[in-house]
Each structure stands twice: as structure tokens, then as C-alpha cells.
Amino acid sequence: MNYARFLTAVSAARKPSPIRMLTELQQRSPPSLISLAGGAPNPNTFPFQSASIKLKNGQTLTFDDVAMKRALQYSASNGIPELLTWMKNLQKDLHDPPTAGYAPENGQMDMCVTTGSQEGLCKVFEMLVNPGDNILLDAPTYSGTLAVLQPLGCNLINVPSDQHGMIPAALKEVLSRWDPSEVNKPSSTAPKILYTIPNGGNPTGASMTAQRKQEVYELARQYDMLIIEDDPYFFLQFDKPWAPTFLSMDVDGRIIRTDSFSKILSSGLRIGFVTGPKPLVDRVVLHIQASTMHTSTFTQLMVSQLLHSWGQEGFIQHIEGVIEFYRKQRDAMITSADKWLKDVAEWHTPSAGMFLWIKLKGIADTQQLIMKKALEKEVLLVPGGVFMINSSDPCPYVRAAFSLSTPEQIDEAFRRLSSLIKEAL
Ligand SMILES: Cc1ncc(COP(=O)(O)O)c(CNc2cc3ccccc3n(O)c2=O)c1O
Prior knowledge:
Cofactor: pyridoxal 5'-phosphate
CATH architecture of the largest domain: 3-Layer(aba) Sandwich
Domain Aminotransferase class I/classII large: 67-417
Distance between the termini: 55 Å
Pathway: Amino-acid degradation; L-lysine degradation via saccharopine pathway; glutaryl-CoA from L-lysine: step 4/6
Helix content: 25-40%
Shape: globular
CATH topology of the largest domain: Aspartate Aminotransferase, domain 2
Structural class: alpha/beta
Bound molecules: ligand 09M
Mean pLDDT: 96
Order of helices and strands: HHEEHHEHEHEEEHEHEEEHHEEHEEH
CATH class of the largest domain: Alpha Beta
Strand content: 5-15%
Low-confidence stretches: none
Organism: Perca flavescens (American yellow perch)
EC number: 2.6.1.39, 2.6.1.4, 2.6.1.63, 2.6.1.7
Radius of gyration: 23 Å
């Protein structure tokens, strides 16, 4: 893979920060080294002495005064070593990426910690997207991704999808405008990246089949595209076996995967990961160096202590509990949808994630209905237009989340929604 062709001029121009390199050199050196280099503050001046965090399983995570000094200090831009190692082992055990054994320049699987996968997405797109570029994605899509892409002045091309995700035949049709043999020419306008949410899609709840992923991956090979696999709902798949990921089939080193702990450990701790070919992850890390420097050391150490105490087995056991919770929530939402919305709306039952994508019958655009009438009835959903490439296009859909409300609240909410739809009709 020629990774240079994918980089923006800004990303290609990034250089390692000498100060950060010194800090990391010092942290790798024996304690006998005396450093007068780093401009780090002296942790003895910090007001925080120690911390202990009680877990629901009765265990306690502790930060004694030595651990606290480290937790409150600067750390490596790509993430603290023990968390990165734990996550790399998890990625290898879960996805067995072909790239794990590749040489760095050939796209060896690498990772970095980001402040939520939102930061990972933002920095990945800013690494790859120039104004005017053609970008492929299946809309409707996550509004946070549109918020990153639209200011970059690129041309977002929708690839039709259905409840099973992106449709490979539709992707082939969209790509047929370009000649695969010409895509590497500097003048080519062929898309270089494709973005998709493969499991429990936001907002559609759609999950891609393994077959479709294989076909999409083959098309990405043919047109030399990178695929950004944004997969925060991977651990919220209600049925086994979990779907094979693009990362697990990545023989070329063309997958950039964003993972998140938001839906399984905590959304407020802001811990995400970028997994991808080393030449590209290196560029994201250089951007982190120049922006946030690194994700909170304290947060990373807290999560790392938890994961090391759980082990992979304990982590998966926790995930099973989370899955059971969201499955029950999903079932409650579907039961209430069948009870209240059957004649006024239609939907597909999601097999992952936390969203139900509901098409209101006989209503061209839900914006006004939701933002005005629904509020009067004291029920709040997201009008589908916010997830479209062009938010002013009429959209008959609404997104309902089954993550926070109780089954009883969901039932009452859909009763209210049903009556306002009937009034509107
Ligand atoms: C597909 C996809 N990719 C990335 C992210 C970012 O997650 P991170 O790891 O926490 O940074 C998300 C998070 N999605 C949402 C977040 C959110 C936060 C406050 C309020 C509402 C929110 N709604 O509605 C969301 O959908 C996502 O759905």
C-alpha cells in the first residue's frame, strides 16, 4: 500500500514534537537518568493525594500516592503502554488481523488511544480529506461524522443501504464512474475513503452481513480505497457469533477502525481507540501531540487497572451483562412499537446498538412534527433529517434510542407519538 497518496498536505507536514520525544525517552530510561529536559510540573505540588474507586463487583481500584503522581502527570501521546498492550492483545484475539504480523511500512496493525472515538474519527478524517475529495458513506449516518466531514469541503456521496447495511451492488454502481486502473493517477477524482458503521448503525440500527463486508472489501481493493470502520456498537451485538470485522479480513492494510468504551464502560471517561496501519496511526499520533498531547493519564490508568483486574474473560463477561440489558430494552421498544405504531409507522428490528429507525407513514418530513408537536406532547425523538447528507432534504424517519428510558417510559412515549402522528394525519 502507498499510504502517502492518502494523506492531506497538513498531515504529511506534521513532524514529531521534540519535547514529547524527550518525555517519552525519559519515561523509557532507567531511574538513574537525571533529566533537566522535560518542562513537566512537579507532582509534589499537586493537591491530590490518593484515590480509590469502588467497583460494582465489590473490588476496589486504588491509586496510592506513587500511582497518583503518575496518574496526574503527562504521558505518551499514543496512550499509556499498559492500556495499549491490553487493547492490542484484545484486537488480536477478537479479530486476528492479517496485518498484526506485517512490517511497519507494509501496514502493521498499530493502535493509539483517543479521547472517545469521536476524537479518533475527527483526526482520521483531518488526516485524509482534502476540500473537493469524493467521500463514500452510507447515509443516513452518525451526525457527529457529518459534523466532522462537512466543514472539510468534501463531496459526500451516498451509497444506498438497507437494514443489512451498505449494498455492495450499489457501491459497485457508484464506483463504475471511475476506471480502477486510473485511480492512482494524481489527477484522479476517484474516492479514496469509504466510511461505514458496520454494527447497530447510528441511526438505522443496521448491521452489515459478513458476505457484504467481503464484497465491499474487494471493491475497496479494486479501487485502492481505505475503509473507515466506525464500530462503537461492536460489543452491543445481541446475537452470537459476533460479525467478522473489516479488520479481520484486512490483508492489504486498508482498514482504519475506531473503537469506543463509551457504550460498555463509560461515555464520560472519553476512551476510544484508533486501530490501523502503522504509517497512518503514526500520523494521527502526531496530530494528538500537537492538539491534546494525550488522553487523560488518570482515566487511562483507571481503565487499565480495571481491564487488568478483569482480564479478557472478565471483560467479555461484563459485555454479556451489557448486551442482556440492551436486548431487553430493544425488546421493550419493539413490543411498544407493535402496540402503538403498527398502523402509522414501519421499522426493522435492530440486532445491535441502541437505536430504532422509524419511518412515519404519510408524513413527508418529520422535522416540524418532532421539533414542535412532539415537544408539546412531551415526547422527544431525533428527526431523521439530521442524519442525512443534506439535512434540508425531507425525511420521513425519526430515531428513537432505547438506551436510557425504562420500558414503561418507552411505552408511554410511543403512546404519545402515536396520538400525535394520528393528529398530524
Ligand atoms: C457511530 C458513532 N461513532 C462514534 C461515536 C462517538 O462516540 P465516543 O466514543 O463516545 O466519542 C458515536 C456516539 N454517538 C452519539 C453520542 C452522543 C453523545 C451525547 C449525546 C447524544 C449522542 N448521540 O445521540 C449519539 O448518537 C456514534 O454513534
